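ugh ok fine here u go
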Amino acid sequence: MRKKEMIAMLLAGGQGSRLGILTKNMAKPAVTFGGKYRIIDFPLSNCINSGIDTVGVLTQYQPLRLNQHIGIGIPWDLDRKTGGVTVLSPHIKGEQGAWYSGTSNAIYQNMDFVDAYNPEYVLILSGDHIYKMDYAKMLEYHKKNQCDATIAVLEIPIEEANQFGIMNTNQEDRIIEFEEKPPNPKSNLASMGIYIFTWSVLKQALIEDNRHNDSSDFGKHIIPSMLEDEKRLFAYRFRDYWKDVGTIESYWKANMELTKTLPEFNLYEDFWKIYTNSDHQPPQYIAEEADVQTTTLSEGCEVYGTVYNSVLGPGVLIEQGAFVRDSIIMANTIVKQGARVERCIVDEECVIGREVVMGEGENIPNQARSKVYDCGITVLGDNTTIPDQVWIGKNCVLNGETKYEDYPEGRLESGQSIILEGVKK
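structure:
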């Protein structure tokens, strides 16, 4: 097989538990973003835009939707005889089989895949961030500094540095120390979870690490051991838009930013396109009586009501007299006549009944999962039905085909949940 200078290994097996009901049936990288995209579209598009044509996608948690979306890689021009995209799930090797137990352990278990391309360098990516980045420039930096490893970093406010893995560097940006969520950070250079390794060095480090650790991560094990061995590790400063959409609030905010007249993150630049696997949809339709302002509309939307400051996925129907504000409404959802939806996230294939009021009331954290649902946003899981004329407060979570009798006196107070088992998917 022809040698590749650099291949990418994209870690996409995470559950993303802080996204709550949105990741009940799919891995976090498969969650919709910006209407028609999925989160994994961003690193995949970055790869092909950077000239990287060989990508291994490592899956584990609920991979079905992700596998269906990636397919054979056609939207990203990754359907190739040599290279292209390959989905790598945990597998049995010899007499042993094991789940991936940590980020670097996942790469260790797929060393044969990497070796098949005999690359000089390996790019390690996370499948759950929103950003545009030219990895070719990062590789140039890696080669120029004769690095063993290059770690992409973002300068963050120093008061937030205790929430990240922090790289402490010398004047040349060579990394001299790595601290995971330090209580008293010495610098504000946060690791982005994007690494370029010289493969021969990483391979040796993975083999050595596996002798001592069954569960292994780059941040906790590989990078500290490389620093201990005085390998050349450099920080690559990234100065553009980057978002970790790992919580309900950060996911909602990042989507809402797209509705601005001049959004900080432009999804539609010709010179750095974001590609996705989307069905061919009819054009969007906005009725004469509709009122739509500062809203991102995907193909196939039909709007007859009022929509302000929202993101609508493909095939969404907003009926006459319905009102939607500050909300994310995902593909093929129907908001029926007279319904009022404010500050909500509604997953795919949902039906919101007539004259429903959703997202009003007091901001009381969710009783069952107060750390996940505490920012005033009500969330519906996919394939959820809300009956006519019910009232739903803030920080509520709903999933399943709910009936009027599920709502005491027609109400679901703030912080309450209705999650029905055996939901049809």
